[in-house]
Amino acid sequence: MIELYYWPTPNGHKITLFLEESGIDYRIHPVDISAGDQFKPEFLAFSPNNRMPAIIDTAPADGGEPITVFESGAILVYLAEKTGQFLPSDVRGRKTVLEWLFWQVGGLGPMAGQNHHFAQYAPEKLPYAIDRYVRETNRLYGVLDHRLAKVPFLGGEHYSIADMASYPWVVPWKRQLQNIEEFPHLKRWFDHIAERPATIRAYEKAQPYSSRPAVTEEGKKLLFGQTAASLGKV
Q: Which segments cross the bilayer (predicted)?
């Protein structure tokens, strides 16, 4: 059983995509990030960066004590290795999937996240910041489109954890002020993943939490106002 600590953000969706595809038994523990659940001591005990998702594997492959994993990219690699799915075993295929996984973790996610922040949440609309991150998101969409002009999936011929990592960050393309129609290869890939039964199930699992009220001003302080000094005071 995988105990999944989750909220319906792009990083949270990555993990439900994998779990639904692989068929592993799992249970969702909601972590309402706008209510400060990510700062509860019991969560920080195994997710020290006070971010979700995180997992507890109650039945690890070595038969030992439960294993905790935080950070979405690390979780995807852990689950892929545990199940032998969605990460090639050959050195070249594995290398390529991991390249694109880390591309998402280091590029698409952070840049699109800043896009969301300055365009949607910042109390002051800063044209320079909005333009900077909208343009960088656009560039990264172009990187995806060029890659997907050559191969069906980011890792090559087969669906992998690299696709699961990137897809949820393209879902809010309208919020990112992008036009997916300008990227035909990306759109083909996007539509294909959207139609996968496991993707449909994963996003259905999000519905009970996605319908919660919008982030409040107090919630924004919790999400965006943290410093090293404040971590122990929440």
A: none
- Residue 218's pLDDT band, with cuts at 50, 70 and 90, is low
Neighbours of 198 (CB within 10 A): 18
CB 47 within 8 A of CB 5: yes
- What six digits make up the tokens of 64? 């030992």
Give the CA distances from residue 36 to residues 6, 31, 32, 207, 223, in Å, rounded to whole numbers and listed in that order: 13, 8, 7, 20, 8
Q: What's the average model confidence in pLDDT over 56-84?
A: 97
152 SS3 class: coil
Instruction: Give Rg (Cα) of the chain.
Output: 18
pLDDT in the model for residue 72: 97
Domain 91-195 indexed as CATH 1.10.10.10? no
**In terms of CATH, what superfamily is 2-85+199-233?**
Glutaredoxin (3.40.30.10)
Distance between the two ends of the chain, CA-based, in angstroms?
30
- CATH 3.40.30.10 segments of the chain: 2-85+199-233
Nearest to 101 by CA among 27, 154, 156: 154
Domain with CATH 1.20.1050.10 in the chain: 91-195
Whether residue 201 contacts residue 12, with contact meaning beta carbons closer than 8 Å, is answered with: no
Cβ neighbourhood burial of 26 (10 Å; 0-12, 13-18, 19+): buried
